[in-house]
Write a structure and sequence with these properties.
Mean pLDDT: 96
CATH architecture of the largest domain: 3-Layer(aba) Sandwich
Number of domains: 3
Radius of gyration: 21 Å
Bound molecules: iron/sulfur cluster
Shape: globular
């Protein structure tokens, strides 16, 4: 196969040479949803937050190349030391869910909510959000969360204030709320396309405990209950594991739900011969199937994240050829400062 007129084998060869030449000065991070070739050439693989922490602990590395979507590279830049340069091989690789929480819309929603509730509300954002939205949370005493600690962070939020304003993934928030037993009549959805109060009344906002931004991941909301019924019919005795970004109806029908790191561990630890049906991005499911031939690992349905897929071997090569210069992730110091406060708060709460 050829990319930009260069043979794939040659691209891989050149990437290997540049890795060798840069040695400890370079760390390539590959998200679980990246295509196999990228993951194989990465120094570390993992979910977004694992990778950012991994990068931050590699103090020898001067250059961090993040193969994932933009908010992930931004998180690495927030956590990086001053001497480290973070590069994102494909700047157009954004995350639609993160983009659904536009910082201006979030500030405007906050203005409207606090006019009703005063300061008795705290913002918590999923790490799948822009650096500006993370900074917004840090500035207002809030925190970030991951898909594995969302419940814990929401509980912490309630120890601080009566209401939690949760961004940007409505489904992660809903699934966490179900586990925490937050009554449905105490939850409101903030529809950011509505001009006033996210489509709610003042009374609804005032009486709520959880205000959920109406964002979603199109990769995970692709999975429907019919897919789970069909999987159980085709693979009797299988275990169905899905991501908490899925609809609550899908999570309810599954045997387990958890982060990508949880799914990887689940497959690794499953007994030989077991059948595991996974509801997440297809690149991860295919790689797990490839790496665990002693188990049957099957996708709940084929759902691909086209933005993750924008990172190619050629864009990785171009980045390495222009190390320290091309597609450098730059954020204002103020944004980095407050976004780090939100990330640090999450680490503090999650470690308790
Ligand atoms: S899988 Fe979903 S949340 Fe993750 S980057 Fe793609 S669109 Fe965003």
């Amino acid at each position: 196969m050829k990319f930009g007129g260069i043979d794939e084998k040659e691209i891989i060869e050149r990437i290997r040479e540049l890795k060798e030449k840069l040695g400890d000065e370079l760390v390539i991070l590959g998200h679980h949803y990246q295509r196999r070739g990228i993951v194989e050439l990465s120094h570390f693989r993992g979910d977004s937050f694992q990778l950012s922490r991994q990068a931050a602990s590699q103090r020898k590395a001067k250059y961090i190349v993040f193969c994932g979507v933009r908010f992930m590279a931004e998180s690495a830049a927030i956590l990086a030391a001053p001497h480290q340069i973070v590069q994102h091989p494909e700047p157009t690789a954004g995350c639609p869910m993160s983009d659904m929480a536009d910082p201006w819309d979030v500030e405007e929603a906050w203005r409207q909510i606090t006019e009703i509730c005063g300061d008795d509300v705290i913002p918590i954002t999923y790490v799948n959000s822009s650096a500006e939205v993370k900074a917004f949370c840090g500035r207002h005493g809030g925190a970030t969360c991951t898909s594995s600690n969302a419940q814990k962070l929401i509980e912490w939020g309630f120890s601080q204030k009566s209401r939690v304003f949760f961004l940007p993934d409505r489904h992660l928030g809903t699934n966490a709320a179900n586990k925490l037993g937050i009554p449905r009549d105490k939850r409101v959805i903030w529809d950011f396309t509505q001009p006033e109060l996210g489509g709610n009344t003042e009374e609804q906002i005032y009486n709520s405990k959880l205000i959920l931004w109406n964002g979603y991941c199109h990769v995970h909301t692709f999975f429907k209950p019919e897919h789970v019924y069909e999987a159980r019919r085709r693979f009797p005795g299988c275990t169905v594991v899905v991501h908490p970004e899925c609809f609550e109806e899908v999570v309810d029908l599954a045997d387990h739900d958890g982060s990508t790191a949880f799914m990887v561990r689940f497959v690794e630890e499953a007994p030989k011969g077991s059948t595991i049906v996974i509801g997440t991005e297809i690149n991860l499911v295919s790689r797990l199937a490839y790496e665990h031939p002693d188990k049957k690992v099957v996708e709940l349905a084929r759902s691909l994240c086209p933005n993750m897929y924008k990172i190619t071997l050629l864009s990785l090569l171009r980045t390495l050829e222009n190390i320290g210069e091309l597609n450098v992730v730059e954020l204002p110091d103020e944004v980095k400062h407050y976004a780090k406060i939100a990330l640090d708060k999450m680490l503090e709460v999650a470690s308790k």
